[in-house]
Specification:
alpha+beta, OB fold (Dihydrolipoamide Acetyltransferase, E2P), five-stranded mixed barrel, 26% helix
Length: 151
């Protein structure tokens, strides 16, 4: 007799837990700032370049395994990217910025003619661990995004 109310109570919370909508808010913000979100592997050794104190650029090649947001035709292609980070000390270096590391990149298109053409859209969160669950959530959220209105 008592098991029925407990089961009903437990099932009442399942839809919210499975949806995870409240927890997706940070992903929505990252998606809104990115033109392209890709899961894949850093295919060349990133070169550390700094033009100003604390801002480090890591240009490298990136092999796209999966497109979470953006042009699906880029899947399987190698892109030239620039991973930009705020780093003052060696301990600030992100451990995934190395050849053969799998990761998710949040990218925006640089101005026409700029090399590399893709740059991370956020200094802090532009590179993330390659979580299949995050990739799945990103695809779902990207499909729900409203296209930008043209002026």
């Amino acid at each position: 007799m008592r098991a029925v109310p407990l089961l009903a109570l437990a099932l009442a919370f399942v839809p919210g837990v499975c949806r995870g909508d409240e927890g997706d808010d940070p992903l929505r913000v990252l998606l809104s700032r990115a033109d392209l979100v890709v899961l894949g592997t850093i295919a060349s050794e990133p070169m550390r370049v700094s033009f100003e104190a604390g801002v480090v650029h890591y240009p490298c090649d990136f092999q796209v395994a999966e497109v979470c947001k953006g042009d699906a035709a880029l899947e399987g292609m190698t892109l030239q990217v620039n991973i930009k980070r705020l780093e003052m000390y060696e301990k600030d270096h992100h451990p995934l910025i190395k050849k053969d590391a799998e990761c998710i990149l949040f990218l925006k298109k640089e101005s026409k003619g700029t090399k590399p053409p893709w740059v991370t859209s956020d200094f802090w969160f532009g590179i993330q661990h390659p979580s299949p669950w995050m990739a799945k959530s990103l695809k779902k959220l990207a499909s729900q995004e409203r296209p930008a209105e043209e002026p």
